[in-house]
Automatic annotation (TrEMBL):
Domain ABC transmembrane type-1: 98-283
Statement: the UniProt record of this protein carries the keyword Membrane: yes
UniProt organism field: Rhizobium paranaense
Pfam families with a match to the protein in the record: BPD_transp_1 (PF00528), OppC_N (PF12911)
One of the protein's GO biological processes: protein transport
UniProt keyword annotation of Cell membrane present: yes
Keyword tags: Cell membrane, Membrane, Peptide transport, Protein transport, Transmembrane, Transmembrane helix, Transport
Protein name, as recorded: Dipeptide transport system permease protein
Length: 297
């Protein structure tokens, strides 16, 4: 008598995730745009037609886009006030924006999850002290607090990323704490505690893996917020410093030409808008994929 192996009809975790993620058409569009931006960031040295920091000068300064009157086909989106190719600077700017988002989201998530995990698990006075500090940080407008921190640390891209990380951290702390408090008294945690699991094992191997869904969604939102905040600091002269081809810094360098040469501020602004919007749309799709209530609907 032959033995028939029965295979489960349940789809794999990845297939199930993609099914719910792809139901959100906006999230799929956001993913496509993000992959395109990521491609530009990785291969900027190949895709960019010119050196982003080379100033051609002379009659090449503030050239309009190639399709406009007076444009030059060698400079598709025109040149800035120093005669540098605008398209090349925008392409290289994707590297800085994605790097800022990745570093800030990682630092914010790492510190925020650790602090929130301790607050939600230990509770008591430790929890009270941590949450009051987070409340104080959240009570101050984020951009104002980032400006104060950068003023203390000094202007520059590295200090701007540190400041933005501190500003975004409380969101991870509060979310992690709430998730841990919801999980810590469930039966599987109690069973692990009775079986002799240490507090560190309960926190990091038992509870934390079951809290990752909303934290991943928050990380995508922190990613887009970091890009926006870094652009704002760059525009105010406290972020990346010239001649770095960072989108916010490019806006700051071109603001005096807003009326005479509007394309100099239009294209960097569109890059910030489209990139942040794409990441936020991806965050909506991740929320749909990780939220069990939406899965049952």
């Amino acid at each position: 008598m032959s033995t028939v192996s029965l295979k489960s009809d349940r789809p794999s975790a990845l297939a199930e995730f993609w099914y719910y993620f792809s139901r959100n058409k906006g999230a799929v569009i956001g993913l496509v745009i993000f992959v395109f931006v990521l491609f530009l960031a990785i291969f900027a040295g190949v895709v960019a037609p010119h050196d982003p920091n080379y100033a051609y000068g002379g009659t090449m300064q503030r050239l309009p886009p190639a399709w406009a009157q007076g444009g030059n086909s060698d400079f598709l989106l025109g040149t800035d006030a120093n005669g540098r190719d605008l398209l090349s600077r925008l392409i290289y700017g994707t590297r800085f924006s994605l790097f800022i988002g990745l570093v800030v989201a990682s630092l914010s998530a790492l510190a925020g999850v650790l602090i929130g995990l301790v607050a939600g698990y230990v509770r008591g006075r430790t929890d009270t002290i941590i949450m009051r500090i987070m409340d104080i940080i959240l009570a101050i407008p984020s951009l104002l607090l980032a400006l104060v921190l950068v003023a203390i640390l000094g202007p520059g891209l590295t200090n701007a990323m540190i400041a933005i990380s501190i500003v975004n951290q409380p969101h991870f702390v509060r979310l992690t704490r709430a998730s841990v408090m919801a999980e810590r008294d469930k039966e599987y945690v109690i069973a692990s505690r009775v079986s002799g699991a240490t507090s560190l094992r309960l926190m990091f191997k038992t509870i934390l893996p079951n809290c990752l869904g909303p934290l991943i969604v928050q990380a995508t939102l922190a990613f887009s917020a970091a890009i926006l905040d870094a652009a704002a600091l760059g525009f105010l002269g406290q972020g990346a410093q010239p001649p770095t081809p960072e989108w916010g810094t490019m806006l700051a360098d071109s603001r005096e030409f807003f009326q005479s040469n509007p394309w100099l501020v239009t294209f960097p602004g569109l890059c910030i808008l489209i990139t942040v919007l794409a990441i936020n749309l991806m965050g909506d799709g991740l929320r749909d994929a990780f939220d069990p209530k939406l899965k049952r609907s």
